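Structure in, sequence out. Go:
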């Protein structure tokens, strides 16, 4: 970049991940304090109390106590320099607590107006809130023997603010050498090192998240159903419905009415209710006595599940099935896309559209959403293959098996075709059969046989993502049937065919095929490189898909069926193309540019604008390909 003056208000990246020009592996961005959401009861992504435990250099403090904020460790800093030791901290007769604080809490405060915070009467969380407000700069901490909540607080030392300003820290001991009082003065601790990441010398792995639902029963007990993150009911009915309202967490598991009429309201009579409910230790030891709740009734009829009947596969079979499923995901994606284009709906719904057009557009949007998911599944399957050390698979299945063999074909979304889509996405009744049944068997294998796979956790996560989205696809296609129920096929379908062969149609069909070839050619190195692709290749793939989608909508609106012609490198021996993929992808890009030139020459203002806009994207794609492999022929880099 040119050496320009820094614009006012510019935000600079402060951590290594933000500086990276591609997605890096590791903890998600939300787990970093500068970009995460923290909520201390019990915390959404990290618990900031754990960050503030080291707010004073050389001390470790625990804020999660009713008696105040207790010092847990002395490991250097001003405390050690003044002679405070770990033996003082560990003395059971006089544990060290924070009795007072002093430091600036708002930017408009001067050094002389920095407030003194008396911790007498404050529990640990109240002290933490004051600590959390302390700004960077010089702070003073008053430590005393015994709980701060019941202490005399800052009365024990006089003017804590003056001690802070004069850097007059001290440790006072009695005649026998026992600890009596301490004032420590230092700069408020920094949490990030010079690279802008959490200082590993201060925080160990897991420190920031150690209190999040740990153990999970704490969160389970405290979060009522009125809280969005709750995973339990507050009130249930008995199995026979005879008792309409029972406290789900009652210690006495016999059916009994909950007398609290406001049981579902936050904070309602919590003191009395706590006496009736499981304590934290009780829920930890006896959580399994809580029943399954179905239709608001406590129902243990399901019993304890037995061992899984799924037979795990060996490693070779897992790889074989993943390769096959990659081709199936590709085939389903294209079938769903063609079905989307067959619906008589515009790319974008115009204002004032008729009720019929709105219904068809809504149905088309559902179908397209499923097609996008299938593209994502193709990526995830190939990510799994890459994790297993296998090359990317981009072939397209000629047949899809689900209660018989379904030959791949580009079909409009007739009632019969829609029903087949519903059937293929319906939950399988037998593990190992159908698409979702095979994914379930793969997932069971990865979970039960982790010794066969070096990254079984990551693989299982990828497969589980695909399984979870399958149920959503079934619901989406069922919704499509509902949207189109009041319309005839003649009303909602386009009459698609090969077209009349006009120059514009011919060039658009060519452009559609070249975009399809470009997309597949870009996905191959993208999948092969994974994180090392730097996000650039996947972005070019998205742009190509967006342009392909626009061209296909133009064709379909004119009654021309998109062809989705497989590129030559996928139809040859082996179906992967070898080292020639890079050359063939470049050839497809050049053919697309020639199509742009031909479309531009037709003279239509709309065609000229489209050709100009799309050409910019293809030229950028060519530049990325050159940067990726230096102009060579190897599409995998």
């Amino acid at each position: 970049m040119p050496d320009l003056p820094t614009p006012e208000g510019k935000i600079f990246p402060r951590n290594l991940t933000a500086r990276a020009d591609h997605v890096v592996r590791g903890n998600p961005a939300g787990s970093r304090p500068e970009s995460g959401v923290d909520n201390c009861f019990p915390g959404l992504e990290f618990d900031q109390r754990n960050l503030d435990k080291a707010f004073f250099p050389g001390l470790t403090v625990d804020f999660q106590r009713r008696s105040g904020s207790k010092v847990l460790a002395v490991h250097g800093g001003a405390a050690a320099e003044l002679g405070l030791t770990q033996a003082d901290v560990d003395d059971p007769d006089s544990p060290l607590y924070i009795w007072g604080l002093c430091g600036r809490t708002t930017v408009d405060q001067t050094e002389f107006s920095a407030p003194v915070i008396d911790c007498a009467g404050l529990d640990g969380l109240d002290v933490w809130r004051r600590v959390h407000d302390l700004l960077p700069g010089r702070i003073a901490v008053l430590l005393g023997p015994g709980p701060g909540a019941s202490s005399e607080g800052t009365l024990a030392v006089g003017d804590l603010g003056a001690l802070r300003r004069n850097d007059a820290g001290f440790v006072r001991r009695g005649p026998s050498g026992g600890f009596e009082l301490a004032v420590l003065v230092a700069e408020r601790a920094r949490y990030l090192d010079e690279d802008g990441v959490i200082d590993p010398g201060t925080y160990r792995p897991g420190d920031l998240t150690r209190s999040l639902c740990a153990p999970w029963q704490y969160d389970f007990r405290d979060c009522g159903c009125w809280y969005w993150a709750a995973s339990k009911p507050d009130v249930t009915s008995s199995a026979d419905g005879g008792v309409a309202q029972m406290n789900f967490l009652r210690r006495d598991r016999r059916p009994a009415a909950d007398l609290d009429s406001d049981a579902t309201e936050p904070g309602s009579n919590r003191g009395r209710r706590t006496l009736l409910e499981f304590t934290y230790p009780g829920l930890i030891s006896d959580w399994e006595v809580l029943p399954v709740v179905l239709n608001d009734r406590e129902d243990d009829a399901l019993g304890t599940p037995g061992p899984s009947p799924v037979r795990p596969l060996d490693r070779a079979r897992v790889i074989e099935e993943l390769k096959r499923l990659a081709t199936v995901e590709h085939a389903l994606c294209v079938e769903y896309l063609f079905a989307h284009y067959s619906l008589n709906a515009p790319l974008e719904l115009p204002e004032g559209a008729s009720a019929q057009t709105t219904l068809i557009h809504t149905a088309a949007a559902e179908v397209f959403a499923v097609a996008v998911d299938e593209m994502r599944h193709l990526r995830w399957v190939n990510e799994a293959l890459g994790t297993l050390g296998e090359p990317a698979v981009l072939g397209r299945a000629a047949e899809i098996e689900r209660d018989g063999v379904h030959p791949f074909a580009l079909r409009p979304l007739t009632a019969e075709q829609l029903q087949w889509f519903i059937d293929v996405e319906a939950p399988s009744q037998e593990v190992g059969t159908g698409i979702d049944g095979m994914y379930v068997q793969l997932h069971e294998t990865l979970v039960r046989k982790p010794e066969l796979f070096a990254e079984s956790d990551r693989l299982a996560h990828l497969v589980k993502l695909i399984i979870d989205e399958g149920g959503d696809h079934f619901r989406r296609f069922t919704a499509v049937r509902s949207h189109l129920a009041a319309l005839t096929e003649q009303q909602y379908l386009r009459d698609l065919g090969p077209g009349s062969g006009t120059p514009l149609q011919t060039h658009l069909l060519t452009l559609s095929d070249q975009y399809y070839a470009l997309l597949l050619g870009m996905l191959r190195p993208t999948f092969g490189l994974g994180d090392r692709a730097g996000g650039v290749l996947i972005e070019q793939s998205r742009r190509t898909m967006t342009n392909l989608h626009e061209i296909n909508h133009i064709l379909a609106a004119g009654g021309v069926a998109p062809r989705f012609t497989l590129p030559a490198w996928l139809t040859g021996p082996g179906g992967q193309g070898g080292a020639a993929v890079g050359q063939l992808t470049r050839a497809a890009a050049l053919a697309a540019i020639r199509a742009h030139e031909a479309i531009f020459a037709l003279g239509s203002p709309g065609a000229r604008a489209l050709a100009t806009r799309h050409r910019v994207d293809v030229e950028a794609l060519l530049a990325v390909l050159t940067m990726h492999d230096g102009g060579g022929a190897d599409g995998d880099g």
